[in-house]
Amino acid sequence: MRPTWKTSPKRCAKEWGDERVTAPEECIVDIRNVWVSYGEHIVLKDITLCVEENDFLGIIGPNGGGKTTLLKTITGEISPLRGSVRIFGNHPRKEKRHIGYVPQYSHHIEGFPATVFEVARMGRYANKGLLRQFDEDDAEATMQALERVGMARYSDTQISKLSGGQRQRVFIARALVNEPSLLLLDEPNVGIDSTMQREFYSLLHDLNDSLTILFVTHDLSVVSRHVKNIACVNKTLYYHGNKEIKREDLERVYNCPIELIAHGVPHRVLEEH
């Protein structure tokens, strides 16, 4: 059953006490005053974020700004130093089955001796555990996920033989095999040419009809055309619950002047730095 989580707007606003965030009625990702560190190095500082059901949130920011760490904190892979993270009202580890995660593209897949079907089926480990045997239910769920991303006809093909865009579709299928309600993608457009990117984003829009999507990228020119809302992360978080990102927010995040296009969406860095 697909989980739902409803939060009272008044209660949420009172507890957050943050004028930058408008508390919605649907809050399936609920991050409050989260700090994350690696040893003595603070990576995320006092992050508060509420993501509504069926949102398509683009998370932008410079390399090393904490975007990947934020996703791993949402999945429960990283525990915060302070603050709380709730997914559908529970600790992230309790909702692991309902979270699909596509990590950054890895070049180590070159020469990897596995088929498209086998790679996609690996996502079932989140539901079964590493030591359990796969069964017919796993096979059916895997083929359904591959169908959903348009890769079922490549099920017997070696993953290393595919293009970058096709591989990303397979990795998304791997994240979909447990029918999650929340999909997290970390730099999914890396290694995909412009033609395949159009098809890739069309797929994400289709998935967004039934999934909430958090999409991490450092490509400012991409997010304006594809996402519903934008958050900026560079240790701290700037988020206004829409595409309206203030110039001063972006300049604080990127530490340089930023040119904005329509609706306040970032386009490109003006000055070399």
Number of strands: 11
Class inferred from helices and paired strands: alpha/beta
The span between the termini is 50 Å
Number of helices: 9
- Nearest-integer average pLDDT: 80
| Biggest sheet, spatial arrangement of strands | 5-6-7-3-8-9
Helix content: 25-40%
- Residue stretches low in confidence (pLDDT < 50, at least 5 long) are 4-24, 257-273
What is Rg? 19 Å
Shape: globular
Q: DSSP strand (E) fraction?
A: 15-25%
What does this structure look like?
The chain has 273 residues and is of the alpha/beta class. The chain contains 9 helices and 11 strands. The chain is globular.
Which key terms come to mind for this protein?
273 residues; alpha/beta; 6-stranded mixed beta sheet; 3-stranded antiparallel beta sheet; 23% strand; globular
Ordered list of secondary-structure elements with their pairings:
Blueprint: H1 9-16, E1 29-38, E2 41-51, E3 56-60, H2 67-75, E4 82-87, E5 99-102, H3 116-121, H4 125-128, H5 136-148, H6 164-176, E6 182-186, H7 194-207, E7 212-216, H8 220-226, E8 229-234, E9 236-239, H9 247-254, E10 258-260, E11 266-269
Parallel strand pairs: 3-7, 3-8, 5-6, 6-7
Antiparallel strand pairs: 1-2, 1-4, 8-9, 10-11
Describe, in short, the structure shown:
The protein is of the alpha/beta class and 273 residues long. Helices cover 30% and strands 23% of the residues.
